[in-house]
Amino acid sequence: MSMTLAAAGTAVPAARERHPEVFAAAARRKRRFQIALLVLAAYLAWSCWLFEITPARVFGGLDKMAVVLRQMLVWKDMASWDYAGIFEGLAQTLAMAFLGTLVAALVAVPLGFLGARNVNGVKLLRWPVRRLFDLLRGIDTLVWALVFVRAVGLGPLAGVLAIMTSDTGTLGKLYAEAVENVDRKPMEGVRATGANAFQELRFGALPQVLPVFLSQALYFFESNTRSATVLGVVGAGGIGLQLSDRIRVQYWDQACFIIVLILLTVAIIDLLSRKIRERFIGAPGT
Predict the structure, then answer these.
(1) For the segment 154-169, what is each residue's pLDDT rounded down to a tens digit?
(2) Domain with CATH 1.10.3720.10 in the chain
(3) CATH topology assigned to domain 80-280
(4) For the segment 166-201, what is each residue's pLDDT rounded down to a tens digit?
(5) Where is the ABC transmembrane type-1 domain (predicted)?
């Protein structure tokens, strides 16, 4: 046993002498890893100092949060709540999410084909479409809502336009990437029948990407239902406006009721979206 350990002890220095570059590379990787850890630790420390994150603030905030949570869980005078306004706001939120997603998906389909490299081979025409996608999706939906609230006034219309604008950029990019990954053989088969370029895309490419388009649009509808809630805080109407009003006057029990409604609505939309995907696309593993 001792002889084996002694042999191993002499083998490592011998290997280091024969292959210095291997050990040098390992040492460089170790140093880079240590430097990265130091940089990360320094950045975290600087962030804590910048945002004044201290144990006193954190634990003091938790105590206040406990008070808010207790007030949320005790629902008082439920008979006097404005249920009509709450459910009207929820209906507006669903309408904003649905209309914004629907219009964005419809606009993104032709733009997605124009932005696809295998469909639009003219870079001078494809490049502006791609940059338009970057512009639209590079600005957050909340910022678009602030812009449209200023342009068209308060109300759900600003929320619809904000969702439509932002989602057009994101869905257009996703659709373009889906079109670029289609199988060329069905398109070539359609072309062999004497079809023109539009018919080639319609019967050769669109059936391949349509399930992807539908799946992504359904996901964005679900996501936009949550986004539309936030848009109401900045004046776009909907359930978000109802929620912000309750929080402003510290009606935490009603705020909790609205949050529960939002969660239930998102869960129902997720269930319906899955059923629709299974109906038109097929269940996973089939």
Answers:
(1) 888 888 899 999 999 9
(2) 80-280
(3) MetI-like fold (1.10.3720)
(4) 999 999 999 988 888 887 777 778 777 777 777 777
(5) 90-273
